[in-house]
Design goal:
Helices cover 44% and strands 19% of the residues. The chain has 154 residues and is α+β, with helices and mostly antiparallel strands. The structure holds zinc ion (ZN). Zinc ion (ZN) binds next to loops. Keywords: ATP-binding, DNA-binding, Metal-binding, Nucleotide-binding, Repressor, Transcription, Transcription regulation, Zinc, Zinc-finger.
Length: 154
């Protein structure tokens, strides 16, 4: 790690600690040439494995873009999309896995999306769960109705 002040090619770690969410490690470093101190942060790259065998870094933006498509015409704000993206990323990182299959990203989206907008959820689920017939939709809608928390006064 180059010193950001004098570009010296080496530095010494004087302290290492995990960030609060455990997703990264911060290191306090000192430069043996100029003596100045700086902090670096290392994050574990969360990789997503596609069916083709290709892996790519997890992208919260991609999650949000996919959900945004499902939410077209629905009363869902950008703020709500951003929060959903954050929840999805947190739930995936909480598994502690360094690599997860792409379909698990899709599954992690379903829960929060269902709370956000049931119509968008159905659109998204129809793709991720490969609904093929109307009966698939009917079964999912039936499940939604059953599992929906009763409204106050019901
Ligand atoms: Zn230096």
């Amino acid at each position: 790690m180059h010193c950001p002040f004098c570009r010296h090619a080496d530095s010494r770690v004087i302290d290492s600690r995990s960030t609060e969410d455990g997703a990264a490690i911060r290191r306090r470093r000192t430069c043996p040439a100029c003596g100045r101190r700086f902090t670096t942060q290392e994050t574990v790259l969360l990789m997503v494995g596609k069916r083709s065998g290709v892996t790519e870094p997890f992208s919260r933006e991609k999650v949000i873009a996919g959900v945004r498509r499902a939410c077209q015409g629905r009363p869902v704000t950008e703020d709500a999309l951003a929060k959903l993206g954050q929840r999805v990323e947190e739930s995936i990182r909480a598994t502690g896995a360094a690599e997860i299959p792409a379909h698990e990203v899709g599954l992690a989206i379903l829960g929060p999306l269902r709370e956000l907008d049931e119509v968008a959820y159905l659109r998204f689920a129809s793709v991720y769960r490969s609904f093929e017939t109307l009966a698939d939709f009917e079964a999912e809608i039936e499940r939604l109705r059953k599992e929906r928390a009763p409204a106050p006064g019901d």
